[in-house]
Amino acid sequence: MSTDDYNEWRECLDADCCELIASYMELIDAMVRGIQHLKAETIRARYELSLKFDPEHKWITTVDILSDLNKPHYESLAYQQYVRTYYDGGDPLSFKEYVDSMVRLAQGVDDETY
Questions:
Q1: How far from 103 is each of 29, 67, 84, 89, 91, CA to CA, in Å?
Q2: Residue 7 above 80 pLDDT?
Q3: At what angle do helices 17-53 and 77-87 cross, to 10 degrees?
Q4: pLDDT over 70 for what percent of the chain?
Q5: How many Å apart are CA 87 and CA 94, to the nearest integer?
Q6: pLDDT of 70 strictly over 90
Q7: Would you call 14 helix, strand, or coil by DSSP?
Q8: CB contact set of 3 (below 8 Å; sequence gap of 6+)
Q9: How far is Cα 98 from Cα 42, in angstroms, rounded to an integer?
Q10: pTM of this prediction?
């Protein structure tokens, strides 16, 4: 927990502020890649279930398979700094190639990118 009078840098005597910030950015990047992978796995599982429950695709749509998977992180100052630092302000969870890949997965086309 961080409070106004707590200085995290004192706990990390072997690292200067820049090293610690870079380490946080690397951690966030690894977590974002994990989120991308977990979303892809969720979509794969939902697609497989849709084949069992709706083999002719009359009721379960691509939108249904993709629903409720985007939880925005934009309000987080750390995430805002991360996207500015690593992706020049772009959000890797919203990049066209990633979103298109998730839509293809929801349609049963798996390129195994994520």
A1: 22, 11, 26, 23, 17
A2: no
A3: 100
A4: 85
A5: 11
A6: no
A7: coil
A8: none
A9: 15
A10: 0.78
DSSP-derived secondary structure letter, 15: S
Q: What is the DSSP string of 46-73?
A: HHHHHHHH-TT-SS--HHHHHTT-----
In the chain, alpha helices (H): 17-53, 62-66, 77-87, 96-106
d(CA 104, CA 46): 13
Q: Which two tokens stand for residue 34?
A: 């994990």
Q: Which residues of 71-103 are buried (b: 16+ CB within 10 A; e: fewer)?
A: eebeeeeebeebbeeeeeeebbbeeeebeebbe
Question: For 89-102, what is each residue's pLDDT tens digit?
Answer: 999 999 999 999 99
Question: What residues contact 17, with CB distance under 8 A and at least 6 apart?
Answer: 9
